[in-house]
Design goal:
223 residues, alpha/beta, Rossmann fold, Arc Repressor Mutant, subunit A, 5-stranded parallel beta sheet, 4-stranded antiparallel beta sheet, 13 strands
């Protein structure tokens, strides 16, 4: 498999490339938006890793470009930008995952492999039973019932949908929703409870399941 890595920090890029090579993942590396567009004309990639801030523009613009040109290629942002607004912008632009710096190379590898095993198909639309999600337009409904979510709930839903029906660990949820923040267990449980309540109306089956020491899964039924 081969990925495109767009990052202007050459030292970080080399460390990442060397680590991914040990996992049998080949990397084409560029440091700018213009260079990324040029190399992608001759090569189809299994995944794309993008920085948010690049010398010649915002990485979300490049994500939008790839979304139009090759929507089947999954995108993960690797960036120092940790605001919720940045993460929502990344997901709006077509990203399926978002990892903030500093980061562990092992975690990047795991997240990257998860994307590669999802069929390499962009998940702008997600359907589970009678639940329908359009991440691009931020439209969510269950049957005829429209559902409104907070920004944090959208981030969590995107993460769970991306890995559905697999479980997502508490650690990954916290790292994605609250990067570089101290998060209490009450905050974590409250977010899960609010999302579960929004997704489950009167008479509707639960779609959000928690398993002790395993994590949370978005699926039609508990195993």
């Amino acid at each position: 498999m081969i990925v495109l890595f767009v990052e202007d920090d050459q030292k970080l890029a080399q460390q990442t490339i060397d680590f991914l090579a040990l996992e049998d993942i080949d990397v084409d590396y560029v440091s700018s938006i213009s260079a990324a567009k040029q190399v992608s004309m001759a090569q189809r990639y299994d995944a794309i890793i993008l920085d948010m801030k690049l010398p010649d523009g915002d990485g979300t613009l490049l994500a939008q470009y790839f979304q139009r040109d090759r929507p089947e290629t999954p995108i993960i942002f690797l960036t120092g930008q940790d605001n919720i607004s940045d993460k929502l912008s990344a997901f709006d632009a077509g990203a399926l995952d978002y990892l903030t710096k500093p980061f562990e190379l092992a975690e990047l590898t795991i997240r990257l492999k998860l994307l590669l095993t999802k069929g390499r198909t962009r998940q702008s639309n997600f359907i589970l039973a009678d639940l329908s999600v359009n991440f691009a337009e931020k439209i969510l409904s269950r049957g005829k019932r429209a559902i409104t979510l907070s920004p944090q709930q959208w981030i969590l839903l995107a993460l769970l949908a991306q890995q559905s029906p697999a479980y997502v660990s508490k650690q990954q949820i916290i790292a994605t929703v609250w990067p570089d923040q101290d998060v209490s267990n009450d905050m974590y449980k409250s977010l899960l409870s609010r999302l579960r309540t929004n997704l489950t109306g009167v008479g509707e089956n639960c779609l959000l399941f928690s398993a002790k020491k395993v994590g949370v899964a978005l699926r039609a039924a508990m195993d």
